[in-house]
Design a protein that fits this description.
132 residues; 48% helix; globular
Amino acid sequence: MLRAKLAQSVRYMSTRSMTPVEDAMRMKITQALNPTNLEIYNDSGMHSHHKAMQGTVSKETHFRLVITSEAFRSKMQPARHRMVYALLKEELERAGGIHALQLRTKTPAEEAKQREQERADRGEHLADVEHE
């Protein structure tokens, strides 16, 4: 019963939404990877003039994703990317679907380390940040 309701809501979303591909990506990634951070950027407008895009009416063909998930722990980047590609297989294979997908995948620990490095690069010290 729950599956039928979920499938019905997904069909409703995809027919009513102005961003059905983005919505499907968000739902699939959230359910499978439980990300602590998920950023989806639709860059399709920057690529609509490309020869390969002529005749395509879809406004959802080029995406950049930033995904932070514990599910990526102990996996190298290629394995992480394969996980995401497997989740989005339908959207990648569908005519008029995703043409290009740029991925940035991290674990929460990697994201924290990156933030710490960015602070250090700006000359901020941990003590300075704690007192803000």
